[in-house]
Specification:
Number of strands of chain B: 2
Helix content of chain B: 55-70%
Shape of chain B: flat
Order of helices and strands of chain B: HHHHHEEHHHHH
Structural class of chain A: alpha/beta
Distance between the termini of chain B: 47 Å
Largest interface: A-B, 28 and 23 residues
Strand content of chain A: 15-25%
Oligomer: heterodimer
Shape of chain A: globular
Helix content of chain A: 40-55%
Radius of gyration of chain B: 23 Å
Number of helices of chain A: 11
Largest sheet of chain B: 2 strands, antiparallel
Structural class of chain B: mainly alpha
Strand order of the largest sheet of chain A: 6-7-8-3-9-10
Strand order of the largest sheet of chain B: 1-2
Order of helices and strands of chain A: EEEHEEHEHHHEHEHEEHHHH
């Protein structure tokens, strides 16, 4: 059974005013447990609005969200439990940091869950380790840390709640390439260790192409496609048409195809491209 | 949600009221407020009410928006009404129980106060609904410019005001975001006991203050990069120009004011 499902999910901002806007338009999708999913879409495509429905921060104008087969809005009082099961890391999460020490800030979520101190400690230290924060940082003020470290503290704050589904909205926005690779690496490791479902929102395919099992593309509030990564990339040209960036290497191979060099496959990672090209070259040498 | 706050919100449009010169609109609003406060009876206020209805219809802004602007002030309105009913005595006694006494004067006074406050809110909402914040502060700067002679930093005050107004929606959005982020970490903000909620306010206020100061710092740098150095020698892209309709509007307002005064004297 799908862990998360949406049925005809629709959300309208400021209904009844000139600013009225349908941000999410009749979206139906099923997310299976344990998957790593990339969520893509243009600015204003409704992807951020969509994910805020998954943990009950926004209440749909119409339609349903099912978590483990149960409507999350069936009992309004239980919505807080949904937020512990579906962890959401916002864009630029470092702006939500407020505690005096790194430890306390990471512990904020677990504390709200009503866990005992020993369990909180275990979770804080474990997630800090997962995300690559050294133990000596725990008693420092989070405001003294570097931008990348702050970002990791904020992500750890959500991970420490050990949600079944972890959603990250543009976790690498505004970071340098080294910081980006580091955070993505830690998220991948977390996914491998916990086997929890992870959704990463990004507008760049480059970021997620390498490791996402599935890709969900939003366009103008509607679900454009939701499929295995390879199948989504086989529609690279369509995706480029709705204004999304496909990986550079995919662009190179689309161009090669136009020039008459068809590999018959869609390429979206460097390693795969390297393999294909080397094979092609060695085949030529044999001739 | 916080997004639903409508006081001070601009409602774009192209009605007659929207097109009036903002300086005149401010003066007209002041005259209007004067009209409400000098009116001493419900009949006087009905002239004001008539004027308000006319202006609201001319502005082509849905009446729903005005209802929305009054709603958050409902508790305040009710409190005013209850206090007036309880503490003003005189005239016929309707009800008496120990020290509580409800009299005809008390009831009519509280009705009068409610109408006055509702009209006041509607009139001032009309000003902000039909005038963008930037033009509004421009107009204030122009209206206050004679005070420059007594060394009042009018330009700086107006600039501060327009920056403040400009950042209200930004800060509301920011608060909304921080609230969502903390809610996602299980903070009880609209639920839970008062103590828990108060504690969780810290989780919102600290990040909000930090980002407000960061923004102020960035804005100051950005303004200096564009060579901002105060009001001296600064020119404007959009000059305020008054037209015939502005004088007509102010004349109509004054006629209504006179009518309200006359009605007040005649019915005394």
């Amino acid at each position: 059974m799908a862990i998360l499902e949406t049925q005809e999910l629709t959300y309208v901002y400021s209904p009844g005013t000139p600013f009225e806007k349908t941000a999410v338009d009749h979206v139906n999708l099923k997310i299976e447990a344990g998957e790593m999913i990339g969520v893509m879409g243009h600015t204003g495509s409704g992807k951020s609005t969509l994910i805020q429905h998954f943990n009950g921060l926004l209440r749909p104008t119409s339609g349903k969200i099912l978590l483990d087969g149960e409507d999350i809005w069936a009992d309004k009082k239980k919505i807080r439990d949904v937020r512990f099961k579906v962890g959401l890391v916002f864009q630029y999460p470092e702006y939500q940091i407020f505690e005096e020490t790194v430890y306390k800030d990471i512990a904020f979520g677990p504390k709200n869950m009503g866990l005992d101190d020993a369990e909180i400690k275990r979770r804080v230290l474990e997630t800090a380790h997962d995300i690559g924060l050294k133990e000596e940082l725990m008693e420092r003020s989070p405001f003294e840390l570097s931008g990348g470290q702050k970002r990791r503290v904020a992500i750890a704050g959500v991970m420490a709640m050990e949600p079944k589904i972890l959603i990250l909205d543009e976790p690498t926005a505004g970071l340098d390439p080294a910081g980006r690779d580091m955070i993505l690496g830690h998220i991948q490791a977390y996914h491998k260790r916990t086997k929890n479902t992870v959704l990463i929102v990004s507008h760049s395919m480059e970021d997620i192409a390498g490791f996402a099992d599935k890709i969900l593309v939003m366009n103008k509030g509607s679900l454009f496609c939701y499929d295995d990564t390879e199948r989504v990339f086989s529609r690279a040209e369509e995706i480029a048409e709705i204004g999304l960036d496909v990986p550079q290497i995919t662009k190179v191979f689309i161009e090669l195809k136009k020039q008459g060099l068809d590999f018959g496959k869609d390429v979206y990672t460097m390693e795969y491209a390297k393999k294909l090209l080397l094979r092609q070259l060695s085949a030529k040498e044999v001739k | 949600m916080l997004r639903d706050i409508t006081i001070g919100q601009y409602f774009p449009g192209n009605s007659l009221i929207h097109r009036l010169d903002p300086r005149f609109k401010i003066v007209i609003t002041l005259v209007y407020i004067l009209m409400l406060f000098t009116g001493s009876s419900v009949i006087c206020l009905s002239v004001g009410a008539l004027y308000t209805i006319m202006a609201v219809l001319l502005s082509k802004i849905p009446v729903k928006m005005f209802v929305k602007s009054i709603r958050p002030l409902m508790p305040f309105l009710l409190l005013t009404a209850v206090l007036n009913v309880l503490f003003i005595s005189g005239g016929e006694v309707y009800f008496k129980w120990h020290f509580i006494k409800i009299t005809s004067d008390g009831v009519s006074m509280s009705v009068f106060m409610i109408i006055r406050i509702v009209l006041l809110i509607m009139g001032s909402s009309l000003l902000t609904y039909t005038t963008s914040p930037i033009t509004l502060t421009d107009a204030i700067e122009r209206l206050l410019s004679p005070l420059k002679k007594i060394k009042l930093p009018v330009h700086e005050l107006a600039m501060m005001m327009s920056i403040a107004l400009r950042f209200i929606p930004t800060l509301i959005e920011e608060t909304d975001k921080i609230m969502s982020a903390q809610k996602a970490r299980g903070a009880e903000i609209d639920t839970g006991s008062l103590v828990v909620r108060a504690k969780n306010m810290v989780a919102i206020l600290v990040p909000l203050f930090i980002s407000a100061f960061r923004r102020a710092d960035e804005l100051a740098t950005a303004m200096e990069c564009r060579c901002y150095s105060g009001g001296n020698g600064r020119t404007r892209l959009r000059q305020l120009k008054s037209a015939g309709r502005d004088y007509i509007a102010i004349a109509v307002t004054l006629i209504f004011y006179a009518a309200a005064l006359a009605v007040g004297i005649l019915t005394k």
